[in-house]
Specification:
The chain has twelve helices and six strands. By secondary structure, the chain is α/β, with parallel strands linked by helices.
């Protein structure tokens, strides 16, 4: 049989193609990492040169202009005055880059250019690690920074690699920002419409929920001897190793909502929870919350129940600050109250 008449082996060709695809990906990552390091080193040299000529007025500005002209003549585009100033700021923002704990090969220059504009050092470190580990695109990273992702976490995750197992507060947020649904700011939307919109935009919702979430079901039925109950959304979090139930409420949180979720979590643990699963978590996602109900309900003492607001548009800095401030006010334990998770905010 001639070579031309031999049957094609699709699996063989796919395997060779995959080898080349992976090689190209690794090459791109390697080149990207090398260039990011080069930009940092350029920034360092600019700062060092500026410092040596600090006594001369306007020296730094003229230095960057001249450097831009010379690099442009030899290397072409990419070395404008604005870009060189970015390199300089890159070094000043991450001065310990060479120690190796900040540079992540998974991130490109566009990622770092966004992150270095974050004022808080802890938040910058978080965005670097989270963007690398979760594979955030620059668009996703920009959206998460704009929505105050790090600030909205119930508790900043431990930075130590030796920290204990992941806690719910290091993943769960309040408020959740659902601007990707395109819903009106008024409360004309019905719960079923919100649920349908979340399912239709499930990928974006999973990103907003945070790492470790996978979708299980909508309108999940729990049945007792006498009645059927339906949970709006059910997820599983492989980091927390537990099921997460979400109940959608279009109005302000009520004590009836809390009691209902408490029952759902208890029933789910009794009927569906596996032997290797941690206790089920319940999240009431509501349009608004009442501080009195939050403080004096079972939410304040049940480590598995959470209530969080949702926002239909990206919050302004002022609005987000108000939300976070309200949350921190309620996070302060009263005298005589035992230690534990503070699940509810606002």
């Amino acid at each position: 049989m001639s070579a031309l008449s031999m049957p094609s082996d699709d699996a063989f060709f796919r395997s060779v193609r995959d080898i080349l695809t992976e090689a190209r990906r690794k090459t791109a990552v390697s080149i990207n990492s090398v260039m990011v390091e080069a930009y940092w080193r350029i920034g360092r040299r600019i700062v060092e040169q500026e410092q040596s000529g600090a006594s001369r007025a306007g020296y730094g500005q003229e230095l960057i202009k001249e450097l831009s002209r010379r690099l442009g003549d030899e290397f072409g585009k990419g070395f404008s005055v604005a870009n060189l100033k970015n390199f300089r700021q890159f070094y000043l923002t991450f001065p310990d880059f060479q120690k190796g704990y900040t540079l992540r090969s998974e991130l490109g220059w566009s990622h770092y250019r966004l992150i270095m504009r974050v004022d808080d050092e802890d938040a910058r470190s978080y965005y670097v690690n989270e963007a690398a580990e979760q594979g955030w695109t620059t668009r996703q990273l920009e959206r998460n920074i704009r929505s105050g992702w790090h600030q909205r976490l119930l508790k900043a995750p431990e930075q130590s690699a030796a920290a204990a197992a992941v806690q719910p507060e290091a993943i769960l947020k309040d408020p959740y920002v659902l601007e990707f649904l395109g819903l009106p700011e008024n409360r004309s939307t019905k719960e079923r419409q919100l649920e349908a919109a979340l399912i239709e935009n499930l990928q974006e919702f999973l990103l907003e929920l945070g790492k470790g979430f996978s979708f299980v079901a909508r309108q999940f039925r729990l049945s007792s001897e006498t009645a059927h109950f339906y949970i709006d959304l059910v997820f599983y979090n492989y980091l927390l190793k537990c099921f997460v139930l979400i109940d959608l409420k279009m109005e302000k949180l009520t004590h009836q909502d809390i009691g209902q979720m408490d029952m759902y979590v208890r029933m789910f643990d009794d009927l569906k929870r596996g032997t290797d699963d941690n206790p089920t978590l319940g999240i009431i996602l509501c349009a608004d919350k009442d501080e009195t109900i939050v403080r004096y309900s079972v939410l304040s003492e049940n480590a598995n129940l959470f209530a969080a607001k949702y926002l239909s548009v990206l919050p302004s800095e002022e609005q987000l600050a108000r939300e976070i401030e309200a949350r921190h006010v309620l996070d302060v334990p009263e005298e005589g109250v035992g230690e534990g998770f503070t699940q509810s905010i606002d």
